[in-house]
Amino acid sequence: MSRVVSLLLGAALLCGHGVFCRRVVSGQKVCFADLKHPCYKMAYFQELSSRVSFQEARLACESEGGALLSLENEAEQKLIESMLQNLTKPGTGISDGDFWIGLWRNGEGQTSGACPDLYQWSDGSSSQYRNWYTDEPSCGSEKCVVMYHQPTANPGLGGPYLYQWNDDRCNMKHNYICKYEPEIIPTSPVEKTYFTNQPGDTHQNVVVTEAGIIPNLIYVVIPTIPLLLLILVAFGTCCFQMLHKRKARRTFIKDSTPLSSECLAESLNSNL
């Protein structure tokens, strides 16, 4: 669960003409009010040790009813870029870190020209849109795809390492992006909804669904479970000892009452 806590560390104000203009936190789900566009979630981990493999990222998205990001066209690519640009703008404490998307291939070490055609989307999308960086994919043992996010790296032959795609070994650790079906009504009463313009369409709205206080409390409480159990055991032991002492005291008083009466009677007889 410490991994989940790291999701809450990245935040930014998303503003500009025709783009997001609300605070979005890494780990939030972003939905469009027109109910036609998918929802998205940027899962950014500031701690390198908390980042995940391709399969872990895939399972994380699927466990929430979504899938790793598939991209249908350049417009959707630009939308994701806009979200990442605002999420990772200067001053948010977010540094370099690529993002897993749902593109991968099931094959062993192909290096031929047919290799790029072997890639498929994990959510079953038939989209043929690709945004490879120069000389990518390199294939070989690299079968899973990331969206570059290396803003501090020196540009390469294909320009800055930003938002273009690269194949990587599937066991490497990265951030990831989930994609969900459009949501009609927020499912949680504690969720907070924001409205703002959709990039590239000044008449559409975006709903940013905030996780709310209850999930955040879960992230705090779960690591403290051992301490809570220890306190519970100590409290139970204390109660048991108090009850045992009280019972022993009552037994002593009960047993000593006849003896006290006999001593009193004998004392009276002696005086007489």
TrEMBL record:
Residue intervals of the C-type lectin domain: 35-179
SUPFAM superfamilies (UniProt xref): C-type lectin-like (SSF56436)
Keywords: Lectin, Membrane, Signal, Transmembrane, Transmembrane helix
Domain of life: Eukaryota
Membrane topology: Single-pass type I membrane protein
Cellular localization per UniProt: Membrane
GO molecular-function terms, A-Z: carbohydrate binding
InterPro entries: C-type_lectin-like (IPR001304), C-type_lectin-like/link_sf (IPR016186), C-type_lectin_domain (IPR051505), CTDL_fold (IPR016187)
Listed GO CC annotations: membrane
Residues making up the signal peptide according to the UniProt record: 1-21
Pfam families: Lectin_C
Matching Gene3D superfamilies: Mannose-Binding Protein A, subunit A (3.10.100.10)
Membrane-crossing segments per the record: 217-240
Protein name, as recorded: Chondrolectin isoform X2
Native organism: Panthera pardus (Leopard)
Gene: CHODL
